[in-house]
Amino acid sequence: MKLEGKVALITGGSSGIGEGVARHLASQGAHVVIADIDDARGKEVAADIGGKFIHADVSEATDSSAAVAFAVSAFGGLHVAHLNAGVTSWCSMGDDFDPEAYRKAMRINLDGVVYGIAAARPAIIASGGGTIVATASMAGLVAVPFDPIYSANKHAVVGLVRSIGDLYAAEGVKVHALCPSFAYTNIIKGSEQMLLDMGFPILDVSDVVDAFQRIIDADSTGECWYVIAGRESEPFRFRHAPGPRLD
Length: 247
Ligand SMILES: NC(=O)c1ccc[n+]([C@@H]2O[C@H](COP(=O)([O-])OP(=O)(O)OC[C@H]3O[C@@H](n4cnc5c(N)ncnc54)[C@H](O)[C@@H]3O)[C@@H](O)[C@H]2O)c1
Known about the structure:
Elements: E1 7-11, H1 16-27, E2 31-36, H2 39-48, E3 52-55, H3 61-75, E4 80-83, H4 99-126, E5 130-135, H5 148-169, E6 173-180, H6 192-197, H7 205-217, E7 223-227, E8 234-235
Parallel strand pairs: 1-2, 1-4, 2-3, 4-5, 5-6, 6-7
Antiparallel strand pairs: 7-8
The chain binds nicotinamide-adenine-dinucleotide (NAD).
């Protein structure tokens, strides 16, 4: 997809990965709308790149619809939706399980993507086609014992993307999941040394932005792209689950 003149909506675009993607897309000539709950930072980034900002809490379906409507009315269509807003949950599955922390993480990391896809799909079809990229995580591809609820909602995003890729293909809408390993953003602030000590190299946001561009350039759909230090980002190859034995 040539990005010049295209319209992109980025949730969680006020900082980190979303901000990096917003700046990259604007540098390629796209019209960018940032949707976030961090108004101050989001407005600053939007002004800096000649884009627009809308306050939107992705865990509310109405906010997701309003963000899409805003992008369409501001720039005349929608071609790229980066559904990226997310939080860590640090919700224990032990004795101190907290149902509120659980629901909050699921509302933002899973509902936010579901509502975002439901809102963006018709707008992208009406604009002649485009790409939805949901930010999942490597935590959606592997077990994460220190944050199992985060792993659960990111696995859910991976399952959703794999399931709707082919469904949307005939409508001209591609859907992919972006699955980074740890990257230097606010989300890991304070844990950097612990992660390095555990043997996890930390990505620069620019590595994740490069992977995002590879996704935009890809012909495929319904794929989940790992982003790991020292490797080219590629779609993760899932093993086939065994079928029934009929003998
Ligand atoms: N940084 C990492 O190590 C890493 C690794 C894998 C996946 N991810 C995923 O990348 C995405 C972006 O995170 P990041 O690392 O850039 O962190 P970040 O904290 O810098 O960015 C997250 C953004 O989401 C926004 N946000 C939070 N709740 C929201 C809500 N309810 N509605 C709208 N916006 C909301 C925040 O205000 C912030 O601007 C997340 O989905 C995260 O799970 C991050």
